[in-house]
Amino acid sequence: MSTQTFTHCYGPIKGEDARSIDLYLPAQASKSSPLIVFIHGGAWRTEDKADYKQLCTGFSELGYACASVNYR
């Protein structure tokens, strides 16, 4: 199965990765596809949403949309 991936920056600075979200969509995504929102740990200092790309891709291959968030 193929996964579509999109990144959106929501921070005050365009292109700032510290405040961004990756959205992984299953190949047959629709408006009714279930969504998992994944917020990694890291005590606001470490880790990155990209560290969990394989996990989110796995969810999308099972038919779930997955949103992985960076935050600061």
Quick summary:
It contains 1 helix and 4 strands.
Shape: globular
Can you write the helix and strand succession as a string? EEEHE
Q: Characterize the biggest β-sheet.
A: 4 strands, mixed
Strand order of the largest sheet: 1-2-4-3
Uncertain stretches of 5 or more adjacent residues: none
How many H/I helices? 1
Number of strands: 4
**Radius of gyration, in angstroms, nearest whole number:** 12 Å
What oligomeric state do these chains adopt? Answer: single chain
Q: What percentage of the residues does DSSP assign to strands (E)?
A: 25-35%
Mean pLDDT: 86
Sheet/helix structural class: mainly beta
Organism: Mucor velutinosus
InterPro entries: AB_hydrolase_fold (IPR029058), BD-FAE-like_dom (IPR049492)
Protein name: BD-FAE-like domain-containing protein
In words, what does this structure look like?
- The chain is mainly β and 72 residues long.
- 12% of the residues lie in helices and 33% in strands.
- The protein has one helix and four strands; from the N terminus they run E-E-E-H-E.
- It has one helix at 53-61; strands at residues 3-9, 20-26, 35-39, 65-69.
- It has a four-stranded mixed beta sheet with strand order 1-2-4-3.
- It is globular.
- 14% of the residues are buried.
- The mean pLDDT is 86.
Task: Summarize the helices and strands and which ones pair or pack.
Blueprint: E1 3-9, E2 20-26, E3 35-39, H1 53-61, E4 65-69
Parallel strand pairs: 3-4
Antiparallel strand pairs: 1-2, 2-4
What descriptive keywords fit this protein?
globular, single chain, 72 residues, mainly beta, 4-stranded mixed β-sheet
